Amino acid sequence: YKGSSLVYSDFLPIGSNHITNDLSVMLHTPHNAAEIIKIKYGNLLSKDIDSEESSAIRKVKIPRIGDEQVMEEISLVDIKNIIHARVEEILILLKQKIERSGISDTLDAGIVITGGMSSLKGIKELASLVFDNKPVKIANPKNIKNGYMNFDDPKMSTIVGLLFYSLDKNRTFELDSNKKLRRKVIEQK
Description:
Layout: H1 16-27, H2 31-41, H3 46-54, E1 59-64, E2 67-75, H4 76-101, E3 111-113, H5 123-130, E4 136-138, H6 157-167, E5 173-175, E6 181-183
Parallel strand pairs: 3-4
Antiparallel strand pairs: 1-2, 5-6
């Protein structure tokens, strides 16, 4: 955004579901167990990993694919390393997209992280390192009061942001299909 106008938008078809898939494949555990492992043990802070390595390597029990009744012990450090590798890859890909867009020098306000992956402990710190110490914020949207869903969750921030953006009557500039900034024509009734 520049002011209240959208300047650049892009999409990376990789997200936190890929972390779950990595855990499932590499640990030979069912997808639903991998999702629970990600949510419960997802931690990108290296100081936490280092302290656990020195404290008798904590292990967790997880089910194996094909025989879910058999539980296998897996090192928490191994779990964290799998998660860290995928998240770092995603952040590097995002940085490359932003650099190719030509707007990386104008990101003075920093990076805003949204979605389910934003709930991982340490994502802000890792993103700050990848993005050369630019400010990083985890989006926490305003809750839209309704009788059906709770929007007060970082996973919902993109949806809430798009809703507020579309409802903003002061939005007067936008990029056209040729990436030229133009004044939006607002119809008068």
